[in-house]
Amino acid sequence: MEQEFYKTSPELITTHYGEEYERYYNAIIPPIYMNSLNIFPNIDAYFDADKFDKHTYIYGRVQNPTVRILEEKVAALEHGCAAYAFASGMAAATTAVQSTVTAGGNIVCVRNAYGPLANYISTHCPETMGTTVTWVIGDTVEEFKEAITGKTQLVILESPASVTFTLQDISAVCELAHAVGAKVYIDNTFCTPLYQNPLDLGADIVMHTASKYMGGHSDVIGGFLAVKDPEFAHYVADKRELLGGIIGPMEAWLIIRGLRTLTVRVPAHAEAALKVAKFLENHPKVRKVNYPALESFPQHELYKKQMRGCTGLLSFEIEGTKEQAKQIVNSLKVFKIGVSWGGFESLACMPMLRMTDEKAAWVGGDQNTIRLHIGLEGVDALIADLDDALANI
Ligand SMILES: *Cc1c(COP(=O)(O)O)cnc(C)c1O
After folding, report:
1. Beta pairing class for 347-349 and 336-337
2. Average pLDDT of the chain?
3. Is the CB of 162 under 6 A from ligand 1?
4. Which are the contacts of 222, defined by CB distance < 8 A and separation ≥ 6?
5. Is any ligand 1 atom within 6 A of the Cβ of residue 112?
6. How far, CA to CA in Å, does 323 sit from each of 250, 327, 387?
């Protein structure tokens, strides 16, 4: 009864759900089970062990009690039947592809999907499995209608995509994919489970990197797959075991700790980001701000339909040259320069700077695009920092 109760809100899930205090001396924090194997009273018990049973553990590459607590929380947050934790977001993503695509199959993928995943399906998969990719911009359902065929096994979405912030109509795409028996994968890292639950909209696999908001403190790398079909869940678990991508117990513990404050941190990032987005939108030197919560965002209606909020990541383009955009980034003081996001710190980056013009246009962006992660340093300091940097050009 208690566990069912703790499942009823994100706050209860992140604080108490999935934890069995009485199993570890009523410690309020679960231990880091730093063991590689578990032992058995006799050899038959060893062979009869059910690796899917919540209280049965065999070997650390299969499952670990600290990891399982984390996974139960993520499954509950995403309204899935199960979630699996991986050593990185990419380990989760590649395991998802290997769980859904067979030799010669077709993948439909949005052009602005996470770069390394796009790279994986356009180089490694064709080379080793003879798969093909059909790329879509993804902002219209029509495009998916044309791209999805009888050969399509997997549709890869990222909504919003983390550089251009364009959205895909998740439920409409799921309907099209399911009509041909394809599965839908979506990277939900930007939204976190607080602001979008794609399994409820029809998606089959939700991927998160824990390295961003779920961990939340820029001190851990990890990833998740959450799924809603129990049979497929076991299939994914078997693939993880084969491919060996399970997260370590120490990392799982850090993410459990990070998740405790997810429901406090994410709204704080979001509130500050909206203020920054509005400041930028009204700045004469800024041409365009990409942030779905802005009423001026071209897909704002779709944002309201499938998302419950927008987090702390946004991008903008200045009215000016590439050199001037670089100058802005270089003169920021509170914002640090670096890749990644989702931690306490504000960051600036130019993800498309070194792309060719053609590649940047193909992805749907611009070399000048400046991406900001709005951290927890206080929005006034962040706006003042941007104001100073923009005054320099
Ligand atoms: C960082 C990131 C990933 C990859 O996660 P890793 O943990 O670095 O492997 C995937 N998708 C998005 C949107 C990301 O920002």
Report:
1. parallel
2. 97
3. yes
4. 85, 86, 87, 88, 89, 209, 210, 211, 214, 215, 247, 251, 252, 255
5. no
6. 43, 6, 18
* pLDDT range class, residue 1, cuts 50, 70, 90: low
What pLDDT is recorded for position 2? 85
Q: What is the pTM of this model?
A: 0.97
pLDDT tens by residue, 196-220: 999 999 999 999 999 999 999 999 9
From edge to edge, which strands make up the β-sheet containing 336-337? 286-290, 313-318, 370-373, 347-349, 336-337
Candidate from 86, 114, 120, 186 with most ligand 1 atoms within 8 A of CB, to mutate = 114
Indicate whether 280 and 240 sit together in one domain: no
Domain containing 220 — which CATH number?
Answer: 3.40.640.10
Cβ of residue 371 lying under 6 Å from some atom of ligand 1: no
Same domain (yes/no): 349, 249: no
Same domain, 314 and 344: yes
Distance 12 CA to ligand 1 centre (A): 26
Range(s) of the domain holding residue 27:
2-259
Return the ligand 1 atom nearest residue 162 CA.
Answer: 13
Each residue's pLDDT tens digit, 44-82: 999 999 999 999 999 999 999 999 999 999 999 999 999
What residue owns the CA closest to ligand 1's atom 2?
209
Same domain? For 253 and 356 the reply is: no
How does pLDDT run across 128-139, given as a tens digit for each residue? Answer: 999 999 999 999
Q: Which of 207, 235, 259 is the last residue of a domain?
A: 259
